[in-house]
Amino acid sequence: MNRSVLNSGLILLSSLLFFTACQKAVTPPAPVLPVPTDRQLAWHEMEQYAFVHFTTNTFTDKEWGFGDESESVFNPTAMDVTQWTKTIKAAGLNGLVLTCKHHDGFCLWPSQYTEHSVKNSPYKAGKGNVVAEVEQACRVDSLKFGVYLSPWDRNRADYGSPSYVEYYRNQLKELFEAHSPVFEMWFDGANGGDGYYGGANEKRKIDGKTYYDWPTTLNLIRGMEPNVIFFSDAGPDIRWCGNESGYVNETNWNTITADTLYAGKSGISDLLNTGEENGTSWIPAEVDVSIRPGWFYHAKEDSLVKTPEQLFDIYLSSVGRGANLILNIPPDRRGLINEIDVASLLGWKKLIDERFSTNLALNKSAKASSVRGNSSVYEAATVTDGNKETYWATNDEEKTGNLEIDLGENKQISYVLVQEYIKLGQRVKNFSVEIEKDGNWQEVAQGTTIGYKRIVKIAPVEAQKVRIVIKDSKACPLISNVEVY
Ligand code: FUL
């Protein structure tokens, strides 16, 4: 080997070593606090699940039972909880949260702490336990199971006194001892007002901030079910989205400053709907909405069941804006999800499957305006590799940048889906989507936040190249996934 060959070999080897060293030296981006907990991350990935409202109201045609309903009215004639879970599964939902007790106080399980339950109803001659039956059906159909237990109880004589809080906690203990895992616990914000209250027939007011002593109750449940997600108007794990119409704001921060003032405070709907860019806690929004006008089944609303297109719009304005969707599907008096609702749900699932059938960007080439430390770890191709754990990143000081994806040929596109790597915090404040037309880039959509997932609908257009332009971000943007449909 002559000296010059040896020299070039050595030069090549040292450059390779230098290159490898540089690659290793690229430090990962620091988190932008606050970041989600592991249980919140698992919850984000669920995206959508069902709410099931079922109690005496179903039989009395009410939305809020007064609390004086006789147990004998609870009498479903063809009850089949497996029809609920099969339908929910077929609709593409991943879980089910059941109203074990609504404001009327009637318990869907034979609680040892009250006579006001299924045990005194004609259902299965008092031997039924709807909570256990539904949980069992959820396990069979691989749906996660969640619990709603209304704090407000219009049946209890002692509602408003300390003994009621003990009753409420005993019931939670009873439920959490009998059922696990429970993925979500839903605490309703409606509290206090008129009611039967054991015959008192009066109006009762409680102080929502202090009466329930929530920290004690939450600790109790957390001790029994460490991974449960607590929903309430203001968290602590997930927050209400501020309306029951099926949308979170286009600007949707997972962060909010959760001081206890939120509990029962009016005038905060807008805040809950957007979150706060510099909020100090990670408390993402859950969008709760019913497939019908009411939360409970009423025959008179049979013609008002939301259509597949309406449900699709709700999907875009909830999951498509980085929130989770809890879609209420109330069983009818037979104890079945009504045929009209079933048809709508299956139609909705079909729309989602059709519109998001082929990700045109998957494994397609991508380039970025810049890459963190020029490292392959953070390169543009990470957004089209189908792996949400890899992400494109810029250098720390760069809060703008763009990603260009080449679909390989001209394609008709209608939706662009973008995801941030939220494990290191939510960052993007402003972005746009562009397509290349005759050699020029044209803006086809604008957006603000991205978060866990953002689906942007655009007027159908043909293009080969799509560009995501990050215009502003709290810190260097981290994009884990881009899909094009
Ligand atoms: C509200 C309740 O008052 C409704 O009846 C329903 O349960 C809804 C999900 O939450 O606060």
Describe the 3D structure.
With 485 residues, the protein is α/β, with parallel strands linked by helices. The protein folds into two domains: 38-355, TIM Barrel (Alpha-Beta Barrel), CATH 3.20.20.80; 366-484, Sandwich (Jelly Rolls), CATH 2.60.120.260. 24% of the residues lie in helices and 25% in strands. The chain contains ten helices and 19 strands. It has helices spanning 3-25, 38-46, 57-60, 81-90, 130-140, 162-178, 214-224, 269-274, 308-317, 339-355, and strands spanning 48-52, 95-101, 144-149, 184-186, 193-195, 202-204, 229-232, 238-240, 255-256, 281-282, 285-290, 324-328, 366-368, 392-393, 401-420, 428-437, 440-447, 454-473, 478-484. An eight-stranded parallel barrel has the order 1-2-3-4-7-8-11-12. Strands 13, 14, 15, 16, 17, 18 and 19 form a seven-stranded antiparallel sheet that branches. A hairpin with a 6-residue loop joins strand 5 (193-195) and strand 6. Helix 4 runs parallel beside helix 5 (130-140). The chain is elongated, with a radius of gyration of 26 Å. It starts with a helix and ends with a strand. Beta-L-fucopyranose binds at residues 63, 188-190, 288, 295. Residues 63, 188-190, 288, 295 line the site of beta-L-fucopyranose.
